[in-house]
């Protein structure tokens, strides 16, 4: 039902056949015999012949970067046989364009008897990655950015575009393979919309049974930004700009029936060279509206009530999470740092009051959190009594901005049907403030002074 990604897709290679790292020592059969025609070292004759190089030395001296690439796999087999391991000589024919062959001593040999993708994966089904090796005979592995349940993100040099990129290598399981294809479909749609505030996917390919997606390189995330300021509150003016861009990105997604499902500070990144421009990343948990795949979704501190209650979710969950990101940047800590979901619901009820009974009745998980009278069960870990509706957002945030509070409270409602949409959020007076014109800061280093906690307004 969904379209095919619009960025290039390489066909999956033949099943690889091991996993020992390339042995840097000479074979056990002994060192290569010295060439018999070697001239004495003190022979001054210009005709003195240099010692013949061993195959291993020749490999070490060969440049794995294809000059003026690409070349065909057939040409690679003819010109660079010493740089290819035996299994690669079979695998390479599945890749029509060859740019980079990988450094020989950084390669992994397959093992047909290894249960983890014949030795290319670890026991968590993540690809074994070695700096200097290649992905798909095009990308040179440079460093590991990070890892998670989805897989790994690595820094690579793309020898086709001559640019440094981030490549997401997704875990090699059936479930993650299916989710990876959904992510690719989502990114293809978002790419077509060319949103300024959504990370741009560059390429999509399958390599050694792993779905891989390459992205533009971005800067630090909003959690790291907050951390760099010792979690001091950022100025309302700067956070308003982040809010505008977040909701612009979400509006693009929601207009195309796409739900992010994991908005949090770590998934909002600054554009390099700027402290004002941001992009939403990590659509790996995303889904198409009306086609939710998982009941357990979103990071707990930013999890919407409908998700915890077991009610069908959609775009409103992103609106909820984005509002909590805004609040966190303005107070320097999460608003609802629950120890578990029951604790989370109690914290929400302190601010919003008790959830509507009709809403609770719709929840598939209501018996986990509510008694027979539809009251939240007591949390044994609580040391003090939590009273619904006892907290005031304006007091929590210590701000004197009624428009801001009005905006946030319209984003934070128990009932997702009464929550404002991302489109409506962009029209709210607090977000639409003419104080900051995004067009004036696009592509510039603007607002570093606004990040100071000394000026909140």
UniProtKB/TrEMBL annotation:
Residues 139-431 form the Protein kinase domain. Keywords: ATP-binding, Kinase, Nucleotide-binding, Serine/threonine-protein kinase, Transferase. Residues 51-60 have a biased composition (Low complexity). It is an enzyme of class 2 (transferase). Residues 1-71 are annotated as: Disordered. It catalyses: L-seryl-[protein] + ATP = O-phospho-L-seryl-[protein] + ADP + H(+); L-threonyl-[protein] + ATP = O-phospho-L-threonyl-[protein] + ADP + H(+); L-tyrosyl-[protein] + ATP = O-phospho-L-tyrosyl-[protein] + ADP + H(+). GO terms for cellular component: cytoplasm; cytoskeleton. This is dual-specificity kinase.
């Amino acid at each position: 039902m969904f379209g095919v990604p619009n960025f290039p897709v390489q066909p999956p290679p033949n099943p690889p056949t091991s996993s020992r790292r390339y042995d840097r020592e000479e074979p056990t059969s002994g060192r290569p015999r010295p060439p018999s025609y070697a001239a004495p070292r003190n022979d001054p004759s210009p005709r003195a012949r240099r010692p013949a190089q061993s195959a291993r030395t020749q490999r070490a001296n060969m440049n794995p970067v294809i000059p003026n690439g690409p070349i065909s796999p057939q040409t690679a087999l003819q010109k660079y046989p010493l740089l290819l391991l035996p299994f690669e000589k079979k695998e390479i024919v599945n890749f029509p364009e060859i740019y980079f062959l990988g450094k020989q001593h950084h390669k992994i040999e397959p093992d047909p008897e290894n249960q983890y993708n014949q030795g290319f994966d670890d026991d968590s089904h993540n690809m074994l990655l070695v700096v200097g090796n290649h992905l798909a005979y095009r990308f040179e592995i440079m460093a590991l950015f990070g890892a998670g349940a989805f897989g790994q993100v690595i820094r690579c040099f793309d020898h086709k575009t001559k640019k440094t990129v981030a490549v997401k290598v997704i875990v090699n399981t059936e479930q993650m393979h299916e989710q990876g294809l959904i992510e690719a479909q989502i990114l293809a749609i978002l790419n077509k919309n060319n949103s300024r505030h959504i990370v741009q996917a560059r390429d999509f390919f399958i390599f050694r049974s792993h779905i891989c997606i390459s992205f533009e390189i971005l800067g630090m995330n909003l959690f790291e930004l907050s951390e760099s300021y010792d979690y001091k509150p950022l100025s309302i003016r700067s956070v308003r700009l982040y809010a505008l861009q977040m909701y612009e990105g979400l509006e693009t997604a929601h207009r195309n029936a796409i739900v992010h499902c994991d908005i949090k500070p770590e998934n909002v990144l600054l554009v390099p060279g700027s402290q004002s421009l941001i992009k939403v990343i990590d659509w790996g948990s995303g889904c198409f509206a009306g086609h939710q795949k998982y009941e357990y979704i979103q990071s707990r501190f930013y999890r919407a009530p409908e998700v915890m209650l077991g009610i069908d979710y959609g775009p409103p969950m992103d609106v909820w999470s984005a509002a909590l990101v805004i609040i966190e940047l303005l107070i320097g800590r999460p608003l609802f740092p629950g120890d578990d979901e029951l604790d989370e619901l109690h914290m929400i009820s302190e601010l919003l009051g008790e959830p509507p009974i009709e809403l609770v009745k719709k929840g598939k998980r209501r018996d986990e959190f509510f008694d027979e009278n539809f009251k939240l069960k007591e949390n044994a870990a609580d040391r003090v009594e939590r009273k619904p509706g006892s907290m005031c957002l304006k007091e929590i945030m210590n701000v004197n901005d009624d428009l801001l509070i009005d905006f946030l409270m319209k984003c934070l409602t128990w009932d997702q049907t009464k929550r404002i949409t991302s489109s409506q959020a962009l029209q709210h007076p607090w977000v639409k403030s003419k104080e900051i014109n995004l067009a004036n800061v696009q592509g510039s280093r603007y607002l570093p002074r606004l990040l100071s906690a000394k000026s909140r307004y």
